[in-house]
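User: Batch of two.

Assistant: Item 1 of 2:
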Amino acid sequence: MKTVAIAYGSGSIALEVPEATESIAPNSQAPCVSEDELLEEALDRPLASPPLQELARGKRNAVILIACRTRRTGSDRYLKQIVRRLVEAGIPEERITVITATGTHDNFREQDAELLLGRELVGRVGFEGHDCDTPEKHACVGTTSRGTEVWLSKRYLDADLRIATGRVTYHYFAGFSGGRKAVLPGVSRKTTVRRNHSMAVLYHPEVRLNPATAPGVLDGNPIHEDMLEAARFVPPDFSLNTVLNTSHQITHAFGGELETSHRAAVRIVEQFDRVHVESPYDWMILSAGGAPYDVNGIQAIKALIGTYQAVRPGGTIFFFAECPEGIPEWLLQATEVQDPRLLRERIASGTLILGHNALWLEQIRRHCRIVMVTELSPATVERLGFQYAKADEVRGQLSRLTVESTHGVIAHLGNLLFATS
């Protein structure tokens, strides 16, 4: 047997596994140069765009879109580089506002300023969250070819200089995060977000997940293409996309035009984080990635979507996700609909919003057994359709595994996409 550390919250849980257990992890490479050098290249020698400082000259104010606290993007390091260039170009700090582009997620907290801005910028630049619920804070800029009315934040629209930032990794229905997602859903009105996200479900001839909206898929993905079309109505003047390793170091950074810089980062993610599996495993130990990726249930379960097919039908995933902030009641209510016909009727009628999450969980539960180690209550885990277990109970099950079993362990997930041959 050997000991492995499974990321859990801000710490880890030690498990004993058979010696032959395979360990799989995402991009763990160290940056080939310093983060400052990577960012200098991205901001001063960008792709399909003038340098950021050149774009900022003559502008009176700027907004910078960043991700919320449930994602690590490197914003605490790259924002100071961006702000310095804006100030040198003539935009005073008091006219620079950083907006957490949270979409419909209520994740903004003022106490996260140091975490997201970095200590140097706290109190020097504006810091606020996007409000998707107030119609008068948005303006309609057009309608996409798929019928999405695009309502964007006036704070974003009224800025002289608009900068979008984000981390690129796999996303369970948009294909990849980053890029255009800073605009839609980032600073969009809730009605716009819901219309876009509804494309994750096909309604005819039956309600089912749209196979074109999947992790790692951009071309032909209607959600991605709708997001991109929406962002092009009033595109960011500059976009910065980062790729991080398991230690949250920035290993790659691409600045410039929205789509060009995003696609460059996508190619790096595909190179390091897509895992090819020759044959499915009997069982897997899966970490949601520790904090902040397991801060709540809706973030944590995303880890299952790109990985569950690496386990054979009827196999077992031991899933570690702390979830100190709980799980949304709407998701629990959706997953409690055990009758597949009734679930689809509720999604089709609009009485169950964001039904794609329920459909994903239904598909995962049909495929394999999920044993969850978490701070959620046993009753809550049962409502998800999973089995609750304490770490010691998992240790007991692992000790009974035979060396003949095929197996896999992910010590620190981050974000992986498994592809079976």
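Item 2 of 2:
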Amino acid sequence: TWVRELAGREIHQIMEDVADNLFHPDPYYRQGGDMVRLGGLTYTIDPAKTLGRRISDIRIGGRPLEPARRYKAAGWASVATEADGPPAWDVVADHLRRLGRVKLDPRPRVRVV
């Protein structure tokens, strides 16, 4: 598990890089995988566009992503740093045990055009 502050522009770039691994026009450059999973973040993706133009309308907590603003991010896989801390699944399991009951609010987070 890692926690790190990222600038809005870094978040956008990470999302563009991951999308390029999936949608690059040359199959040789497609590294596969899937898009990152994001809590509290919504966006629009157009797979037909080129790197740097695929991801748009990024919002965190319903507000537009600000390129210069710093956001706290947490994940199970590190991004550009070594990970430290307990495994993410242990953190989630402990949190769910403390909550006891979780209410789900399913809503679309990604719009594909």
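The chain has a mean pLDDT of 85.
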